[in-house]
Known about the structure:
Strand order of the largest sheet: 8-11-14-17-18-19-20-21
Strand content: 15-25%
Largest sheet: 8 strands, parallel, barrel
Shape: globular
Radius of gyration: 25 Å
Distance between the termini: 24 Å
CATH superfamily of the domain at 458-528: Golgi alpha-mannosidase II
CATH class of the domain at 458-528: Mainly Beta
Number of helices: 16
Amino acid sequence: MEKIASDDYFDYYEANISGDLDRVCYYFEMQDADERLYLYADTIAADFPEDRTEVYQFPFIRREEISDVPHWLKEAVVYNIFPDSFADSKRGISCAAKDYFDEKTGQTLHTRLGGTIRGIIENLDYIEDLGFNCLYLNPIFTAAEYHRYDLLDYYHVCPNLGTDDDFRELVSEVHNRGMHIIIDGVFNHSSWYFFAFDDVVKNGENSQYKDWFYGLKFPVKRPEDGERPSYTCFAYERKMPKLNTSNPQVRNYFMDVCRYWLEDFDVDGWRLDVANEVDKDFWRAFRTVAKKTKKDSVLIAEIWENSERWLQGDMFDSTMNYEFRKVCRDFFAFGKINAREFNSRFVDMLLRYPFPIVQGQLNLLDSHDVSRFRSLCAQNSADSGDSCEQDKRFRLAELCLLTSVGTPSVFYGDELGVVGFEECDYRAAMPWANPVKDNRDLFRELIKLRKSNDCFVHGNFRVLDYDERGKFVFARETSSKRVVVALNAFNESNDSFSVLPDCKPIISYNYDAQNHSIGAFGYAIFEVK
């Protein structure tokens, strides 16, 4: 067995077994000097059991339990776009919000900044130039609010964003560039003007859709702000009634939605909102439909906590890895944990799932739901112009994002320094003409490095060294190559980097090779063949 990690409490060992057997019995033999012990089932004993049924057993390896994350997701570098905020022209967004009255639903569809599908198309060259090879779009379907998480129509692009044909063109242009595209699916709840809920409001207990929703108390009405709804909502949002996804009719409706966008529009996958509040059998059926329609489509769940039960091969390929953000926030942005504590939490995160699953986890620092990471970096920084500590902390976090195990996802505008603690700020208009902080060269450099070295996609992750301050050194390695990443997340120089290779770094900042020293918030990356 190979030691693969250590934390404050344990050393972790791993052995990979290959072969044609689908039933496996195993035990652990431990030897210390002259003493030999056997660990099996719930027993530690000096004698090996005669009955093989007493040892650990993996009775049958079901096909559904074998992690089968699409290969392209592991190689993806994702650019996450919040459509309303990104662009309505080449390198521009007018911020001229124009609400739209939708005759089909009878509702006014609101915008805030006026981004469009056409704006995304016209800036694909910008995204590609940075090195990204996958788009993830927050909701694009017809909805009343600018964020589009209150869906009215699951079969059409919101008119404020453009037309269905605009989206077909976007998908085609994305694929022509060898890129992929993932869209946001909101199946936990709908708008209170979604046709089924509207029918419940109008027809009450006689509605054929009354079982599509939870907790209905008749007569159902749309409450004023501050009134208690007579139905179950998502997160107390009165305009978002919760869908009963265990209902066969609801399930069939959304299975068709799944099939429609994969088949008719050729999207490459779904990011699935509030996935842990949806019926698990719904997701099993959804996976079956998605994989049958498009075998290499990906399913990424929005789950903020431990996701083991959802990543067993029968529901999702990946989840949004908010734990990655939390650990990086506490180490790089806030500086409230040292490298030893960072290692312990990082190792726990990496060992939580099988390695093929970890390779496809959607690692992120920012999203449409959280304060911008660069803003967090300012809270523990002593700023001084262009070389301010805030940006050095942010740079280290992005370095970690783009060199770690998993699929990195970057929220639009991070490369241009967008900041913000409140929703209206962290979803701000893309600052095309006036970047807050131009980090495009940093992203180009790190993404190019990641895409040019298969260690970052296929290589294992081994921590080499850390201390009680900010020193953290790790390796990404395959059978033929090794890349060593060393960083110092503290605001003081550290001269104890003795494990570094005796070669010139391929990328570095604030690194002193002669003294094996990395200055405050510095880093160095070495390639060892």
